Amino acid sequence: MNVLLKAAIIGVAITGLTGCGQDPKGAAGFSLPDGDVEQGKANYIAFSCNACHQHSEVPQLNLAEAPAISITIGGNSARVRAYGELVTSVINPSHRVARRNSEELADVSGNSRMANYNDSMTVTQLIDLVSFLQSSYKLVPHHNSAYPVYWYPDEKASD
Questions:
Q1: What count of other Cβ atoms lies within 10 Å of the Cβ of residue 27?
Q2: Rounded to an integer, what distance in angstroms lies between the CA atom of residue 91 and that of residue 129?
Q3: Which residues contact 127 (CB under 8 A, 6 or more apart)?
Q4: How far is CA 20 from the centre of its chain?
Q5: In the Cβ-directed half-sphere of 44, how many Cα atoms lie within 13 Å?
Q6: Is the pLDDT of residue 128 over 70?
Q7: Residue 142, exposed/middle/buried by CB under 10 A (0-12, 13-18, 19+)?
Q8: DSSP β-ladder status, 137-139 and 75-77
Q9: How far is 89 from 148, CA to CA, in rounded Å?
Q10: Taking a C-beta distance cutoff of 8 angstroms, is the pair 41, 57 a contact?
């Protein structure tokens, strides 16, 4: 494929994508730089995320004052954990909890029990943390269930 044709295809794709999502609160144009996974792991520990979250690389804390919540992070997933989804989970955890309406995860007003780190976590710490979280998921293909073929017996054969 020649360079001019590739450029035209890319241009059409970009034009099409920018036309979608005119919502002022949409994620169009949102992009953060790459983070440091190892520093993100250190941030995960420093902010005591392991008080309420399980992660295969970090032992979960067993604190007397920690809520009795244990949410697994990472592992096999049949879908991509999008960067924006993980950022939102950190800076606005009530976004997902409100839809679940879980008494274990939410307080009486429906807000997430997760601590709010928006005023104590720097953007760099957030970027690194999310890089660590995203690297914790392994995308595995979804396998459909194998169902047997069902059929009705031929009525004439039973006569």
A1: 14
A2: 12
A3: 32, 33, 34, 35, 40
A4: 22
A5: 28
A6: yes
A7: exposed
A8: parallel
A9: 40
A10: yes
